[in-house]
Amino acid sequence: MGNRHGRYSATGHGKHHPHPPYKYDESVPKIPTQTSTSANVNMGLRLPYAHVDSTLRALAGQAEGFGRHAIGGLHGPLYHVKTLADDGPGSLRYGCREKEPIWIVFEVSGTIELSSYLNVSSYKTIDGRGQRIKLTGKGLRLKECEHVIICNLEFEGGRGHDIDGIQIKPNSKHIWIDRCSLTDFDDGLIDITRMSTDITISRCHFFNHDKTILIGADPSNTGDRCMRVTIHHCFFDGTRQRHPRVRFAKVHLYNNYTRNWGIYAVCASVESQIYSQCNIYEAGHKKLAFKYLTEKAEDREEGCTGCIKSEGDLFVSGTQAGLTPITNETCVFCPSEFYETWTVEPPTDALKHFLEHCTGWQCIPRIADQMPVVS
């Protein structure tokens, strides 16, 4: 059917909201000045959920968007990572395999070389604040788990077939990935597939990579129609494609800065619904921001693309949006059908400067916690 819109309409959302409510709160604290790193200098900009660094566990439940209910290991004890070893007592892997809720913090800085995927079980917070931890070799796998928070880590140099930085599949939900730096994996940086849903990716820095974020595995996985993902305040810095690439899912993109891509910025494929709001798209050699690919869902007679609605986006440096007109407004969901507020602001030079300097791993002190400790 070519690049036609409106072939797939979301069911159960008859009420359409043409203008979503913006949460634009001048009372939100500014970037703290007490940190010494240049990445956290005070630029006079408001910071989404800035108060989450006031106490250790304030992070839980503070995500915006579809992953807003993620609480991680809020109700569990602290687990202290005391070694950079791949496994064994005191290692990150040892803590992640525990079945009960755990809030994981680090007493060491450095590189953890993973010999295999590190499986993360439900109700875990991996909290890198206070240290600088880099994961290499392989990545994290979130398989059939829920309520996971991953904060302030670096992912670099993952090697091997199908090796992603963070792989979320199958049937995982209530996930929040915040302030992580991701680069140079042999496959994707973040893959979200096989009915994994209610996920937020925020304030992450993606660079030096090809296939950045995939949402929806292939046209045969029609169960992925349930997937919902929010990506906001992220910096896609010269990555080649997939910012993200989407099949089936509903995806809300806002206040991201994507520049100098190699093929396209955002790709909508079979039945996807993408709401792109107040993002900055700055082309390099390749000028087209939005791409549509036609694929046939396994349970349909004909192929179709996805739908993209662009609202308040800024296209600079000769960027061509490449949008296909939407013939049916209901073919793209409105975020306000699912959550009432989110922190969004106009796509200005100030926002761009903020995203260049305040995304990815940050030098953030770890706040003390009064909960009991497990060894």
UniProtKB/TrEMBL annotation:
Cofactor: Ca(2+)
Enzyme Commission number, as recorded: 4.2.2.2
UniProtKB keywords: Calcium, Lyase, Metal-binding, Signal
Listed GO MF terms: metal ion binding; pectate lyase activity
Keyword hit for Lyase: yes
Start and end residues of each Pectate lyase domain: 89-287
Keyword Protein biosynthesis: no
PANTHER family per the UniProt record, alphabetical: PECTATE LYASE, PECTATE LYASE 18-RELATED
Protein name: Pectate lyase
Organism the protein comes from: Olea europaea subsp. europaea
